Amino acid sequence: MRSSLLLIALTLLSNSKLALSFVPTGQVAGHNIGANLPFHQKETSLRLSSTTEMSTLTDETTWKLRFVLRGIPTAKGKKVDQIFDIHAQFIEEDGYEPPQGYVKQVPIMDDKNDIDNDNDKPLFQITGSRWLLSEDPNERKDGLWVWGLFKEPLYPFLLLQLQTESIPLPGEEGDSIEPLALFAQVTHKRDQEKGAILSRAELKIRVTELVKADLFGVSTAELFEEKSVGQCVFQPLV
Predict the structure, then answer these.
(1) Backbone φ/ψ region at 151: left (φ over 0), alpha (ψ -120 to 50), beta
(2) pLDDT per residue over 44-67, tens digit each?
(3) Model's pTM, two decimal places?
């Protein structure tokens, strides 16, 4: 009789230890994630919590770029204000440090505001581009990451250059914005959860002028100055 009772007690003790060592799915460190959800919702909530999308400067992320242009000169000598939205991807080229590449414009499938219905192409069209991650361009030096102070390079700026086609303007006059060469210094950050973050940036164009390089006017030099023409806003579509 005693041996039977002892065997039952050992069995109960063994089962209780196994129960203490078992942690149900969805319960970590004493916190039940899906205690009040049906079984199929528990599995879904766990799967979603482990999945994140981060914006990148690669073809994996499409960005919405909004160009707010102010006082842009036209082919007929006027100045106009215009807003254009495009979708684009930052394509990184291999083998460069710091990272750099070009901007690839992609079609806007759901937005007809900036589509020319006559030839089904965007009014604002990029013909050439270049982007480069950079430290402060006014204070170039070896980054602190070279000395092992950071796990990865820290580049606080993205230097952007864009060339555009002529942009037709509405109206019977047949006026247009002549091809533009736009420049921007964009503040660039990396967030552990969101990924790449590009801040609103000032858009500039370079106005060139020929000046005499000597007293006799035999030779000339080309000088340029930067002029602000608006802003550009960056929004990742993730």
Answers:
(1) alpha
(2) 332 332 334 899 999 999 999 999
(3) 0.66
